Amino acid sequence: MRVVIAEDAALIRAGLTHILTHFGHRVTEVGDAPALLAAVDAEPPDAVITDVRMPPGFRDEGLRAALQLRERHPGLPILVLSQYVEHTYAAELVESGTAVGYLLKERVGDVTEFLDALDRVRGGGTVIDPDVIRKLLARRRVQTPLGRLTDRERQVLSLIAEGRSNSAVARRLEVSEAAIAKHVNSILTKLDLPPDADDHRRVLAVLAYLRS
User: Fold this and answer.
1) What is the separation, in whole angstroms, between the first and last Cα of the chain?
2) How many CB atoms are located within 10 Å of the residue 79 CB?
3) Of 142, 161, 194, which residue is a domain's last?
4) How far is residue 127's CA from residue 98's CA, in Å, rounded to a whole number?
5) Is 73 helix (H, G, I), strand (E, B) or coil?
6) The domain containing residue 206 runs over which residues?
């Protein structure tokens, strides 16, 4: 298997190369995102291993390069190996299809585990560290309008979705109807549902809840 390694830290890059060549793989090393793009375009490999933060900006160059490569070479197996979870592009890469991996460096326990992950990605599988999944899901919840709601507001909205009136919700939660009305107003505001004569805001709020 021919692998392109994109890693700016020389010691880590050398270590990965030593491991892969020891097990019979051919390796091309690069140290920045432009070199990664050039190396893959020149001779598409069987798999790419890339860090997230690399020169020239040390931000998300590695992930953006990976997404560009997936567009140019559909299905190219890519294993991200980093100590960072870059939310925006990580989610886009994970959702781009099969043959994708995202592992955190500090959580790769041994060589066998790493090689197994690379083999699975090369074979069209998806290998995502559980911590990466948790962080991506947490970020997504915060970014959606429903992620702005408090636990109590979610509880109120779930009862409204069952068809209950404010008074029925108040009885169920054993609070005053005024308190429920306050929660409902807060929910409608957080869901960006301003007063509109043409729309029933409670219905729209319930639809947003059900779609989630």
Assistant:
1) 42
2) 23
3) 142
4) 9
5) coil
6) 145-211
- Tokens read off for 147: 């992620």
**CATH number of domain containing 110:** 3.40.50.2300
Q: Which residues, including other chains, have CB under 8 Å from residue 27's CB and lie 6 or more apart? A: 2, 3, 4, 5, 16, 17, 20, 21
pLDDT in tens, 73-121: 999 999 999 988 877 788 788 777 789 999 999 888 789 989 999 999 9
Half-sphere exposure of 195 (CA within 13 A, CB side): 1
Number of domains in the chain: 2
Q: Which residue has the higher pLDDT, 139 or 28?
A: 28
Last residue of a domain, one of 81, 110, 142: 142
Asked whether the beta carbons of 102 and 80 are under 8 A apart, the reply is: yes
- 11, 49, 90 from 56: Cα distances, Å: 19, 18, 19
> Residue 136: is its pLDDT beyond 90?
no
- The confidence score (pLDDT) of residue 28 equals 97
Q: Are residues 199 and 99 in the same domain?
A: no
CB count, 10 Å around CB of 32? 19
Sequence-distant (≥ 6) Cβ neighbours of residue 42 within 8 angstroms:
none
**Residue 145 pLDDT exceeds 80:** no
> Do 96 and 40 share a structural domain?
yes
pTM listed for this prediction: 0.67
Q: What is the CATH number of the domain that holds 202?
A: 1.10.10.10
Query: Which amino acid makes up residue 60?
Result: D
